[in-house]
Amino acid sequence: MAVVYVGVFLLGKALALPAEPFMTKLFADKSIPDVILTLLTIFILAPLNEETLFRGIMLNVFRSRYCWTMWLGALITSLLFVAAHSQYQNLLTLAELFLVGLITSVARIRSGGLLLPVLLHMEATTLGLLFG
User: Fold this and answer.
1) Dist CA 92 CA 94 (whole Å)
2) Which Gene Ontology molecular-function terms are recorded (predicted)?
3) Consecutive sets of 10 residues in the chain, 132 residues long: mean pLDDT of each?
4) Do residues 59 and 108 make contact, with C-beta atoms less than 8 angstroms apart?
């Protein structure tokens, strides 16, 4: 996951892309309680809710006796994951989100559970704040 974020960060710097407006305003003019609630939401609630929805429920729809359907599901749920993050405007950020969706989908398929995708999502959130 770190390779994705560092790579996108370096590519964004090389292309002189501006920072995501959403990320620059995330903590602007917020009180301490609001910052705490925002951090709880993005570090805990969002990963739990989004991974349950995209990797738990939606990806499960593609489960069948054919292996390829899960991989098709990984692609489709990754696209839906990007669509759910419409607050971002930079195409590089959207590509990054697609890769995060694919990585967490593969983690779900390989592990069979949601713990690994949730932890990876939390890592992605941390890296996004550090490099975003």
Assistant:
1) 5
2) endopeptidase activity
3) 89 90 89 95 97 96 86 96 96 96 96 97 94 78
4) yes
